[in-house]
Every structure is written in structure tokens, then in C-alpha cells.
């Protein structure tokens, strides 16, 4: 069976002056299929932020309808309500995957 998923690029954005967590503007990672690959220059990434992002990543990888909020929603806030960091989720390429019936 074949299926298609979008690859994703997740980037930390916002005004550094509003961050109270360890986020760095421009840091982030790619999601290609089931793999996460951090940007070369990303030295660390908050596991709290990652835990917040994970449920959205699988949903953003899949095709959706233009009337579905996941189609146009692309900014996720830091889980700390006092922090101004945002994480941009951008769809890049669409790849085709296949798994066999066993």
C-alpha cells in the first residue's frame, strides 16, 4: 500500500526579548517520514517544546482539506504561558512511502 506524507520544517520564531525559556530564534528541525533531524546549528531543543509539537507533526504530515484548521494553522506556542516563543511548522516536499502486506 502506498501513501504520501509531507516533510516538515519546524523553526523557532519570535522576539527573543519575550522568551523566558532556552529557545533560540532560528533553531529547529526537519521531519522526513518518521525521522527527526535537527538543524546543523541547533545545539539543544527543549523537550517540553518537543512534547508540545509532536501531536501536531503527524497531523501536519498528512493531506487535509482546505476547510480543516490543520491546513492553515502553522504556529504553535511554547508550552510555557509566560514565554513568547513560537514554532513555525512549514510543509516542504511531499514524499511517497510504501509498506507491504505480510
Structure write-up:
The chain is of the alpha+beta class and 102 residues long. The protein has one domain (2-38, 46-95). It has helices spanning 47-61, 69-72, and strands at residues 2-13, 28-32, 35-38, 75-77, 86-98. The chain has a 5-stranded antiparallel sheet with strand order 3-2-1-5-4.
Quick gist of this model?
Helices cover 19% and strands 36% of the residues. By secondary structure, it is an alpha+beta fold.
Distance between the termini: 11 Å
- Computed Rg: 15 Å
In terms of quaternary structure, the protein is: single chain
How many discrete domains?
1
Q: In which range does the helix fraction lie?
A: 10-25%
Number of strands: 5
The residue-averaged pLDDT reads 91
What summary fits the major beta sheet? 5 strands, antiparallel
Query: What characteristic shape results from the CA principal axes?
Result: globular
> How many distinct helices?
2
Q: Give the spatial strand order of the biggest sheet.
A: 3-2-1-5-4
Class per helix and strand makeup: alpha+beta
H and E string:
EEEHHEE
Proportion of residues in extended strands: 35-45%
> Ranges with pLDDT <50 over ≥5 residues?
none
